[in-house]
Amino acid sequence: MQYFFLLGNNYELAAIEVYTVLQSFKIRYTTLLEQAPLLLIETETGIDLQEIQNILGGTIKTGKILETVLGDSNEKLAKLLQETLGNYHEYLHFGINVFSKNYKQAREMANNWKTWALAWKKRNKENYKRLRFVESNEDTLSSVIIQKNKLISENGCDFNLIYTEDRVFIGQSQTVQNFELYSQLDYGRPAYDAKVGMIPPKLAQTLINLSRLANENIKDLQLLDPFCGSGTILSQAIYSGFIHIQGTDLDPEAIERSVENLAYVKEILNTSKIKEEIFQADVNKLSTMFTKANINKVITETHLGPALSGKESKDELLRIKDELSKLYQSAISEIYKVLDSKGILVIVIPVFTYKQQLIKFDIQNMIYNNFKKAKQLGQHKELYTDRGSLLYKRPNQKLWREIFVFQKQ
């Protein structure tokens, strides 16, 4: 069976997240296409797409590939769309999305298929009690439009025409990301303060997924965030099914925000069996707070430094880097002490941008010989940086996030 995943803006990160989750579920797959923003795979057995979608932080929607045709077979493609739409009776809402790495081709084919869809609707409107073709001003239909227009319901159909150099994959959407829940987990939090630069919940979810291993029971694992801030990673850990969570932060106000936000998250998720410990602590003294090395996963976004205006000189950025390096080195040493023998560390550190330069931290010196080098999925090395990391970035952003996955050795 063949499936597609529509990924978010940080393509490599989202793709590795999908692969990690599939491997943790022991799903054997072959990659058919890696063409941003889409990932296509083939599996020997079926996938519960809704279960996978519920877990993923960086995937916008998923679906099944219905058929593949040669790139110049528009007549065959139109016949397949018509046959699929003919399976719906009385009520039908449908939309068509076109994807191609050639932007000009994508726009041209999108206009062509819009014309086809409107003509098909006109010819067939007498056969339905309600027939709607759903359009958007954007290049493709958003998850909000798909959900609100019920395009993945029993009376809906959302087509995805994926053009490559020599063929077209025809996919039908099956799931979309729960944007309403993520809005609650983000802007709905009672202790929300954008000034402190909180990590986005979707990214926090992705970090948790990057730590996944096969044959692990999340409910038995101990998860720690030693820079817990407002509790975003801890909140997503609860969402992911963790029961045993710990969070520390040097800032007492951050601890108050975490406690308040976790209470809110447990309420909206209707979860009461969480065993959490949230308290103020200096990361440099972590091993005195957790005297046993029994933490299974440390997932954290470190202190990223002061808010940047974008006007900093290179010397200023290097000074900030030197100060933060001392913190990170000490923190990683303490984290090593509290992790169990096969513990996983997922850590986010900053990359500063100066003109066309990237100012990075010397992560290899920080980890000493305590951790194995950055953990990668061997068959997907091309998606990582040359440092074995993954990047989370947005256009014109003054600071990027660099993500490493380490395992204790």
Word description of this protein:
It is a single chain. The strands form 2 sheets. The chain has an 8-stranded mixed beta sheet. Strands 9, 10, 11, 12, 13, 14, 15 and 16 form an 8-stranded mixed beta sheet that branches. The chain is built from 12 helices and 16 strands. It is elongated, with a radius of gyration of 23 Å. By secondary structure, it is α/β, with parallel strands linked by helices. The protein folds into 2 domains: 176 residues, VC0802-like, CATH 3.30.2130; 218 residues, 3-Layer(aba) Sandwich (Rossmann fold). α11 links the parallel β12 and β13. The longest helix is centred in the last third of the chain and has 25 residues. The two termini are 38 Å apart. The model has no long low-confidence stretch (mean pLDDT 94).
Question: What is the topological layout?
Answer:
Elements: E1 2-7, H1 11-24, E2 29-35, E3 38-43, H2 49-55, E4 59-70, H3 74-85, E5 90-99, H4 103-124, E6 128-133, H5 143-148, E7 156-163, E8 167-176, H6 179-186, H7 201-210, E9 222-225, H8 232-240, E10 244-249, H9 252-268, E11 275-280, H10 286-289, E12 295-301, H11 314-338, E13 339-354, E14 357-359, H12 363-367, E15 390-392, E16 399-407
Parallel strand pairs: 5-6, 5-7, 9-10, 9-12, 10-11, 12-13
Antiparallel strand pairs: 1-3, 1-4, 2-3, 4-8, 7-8, 13-14, 13-16, 15-16
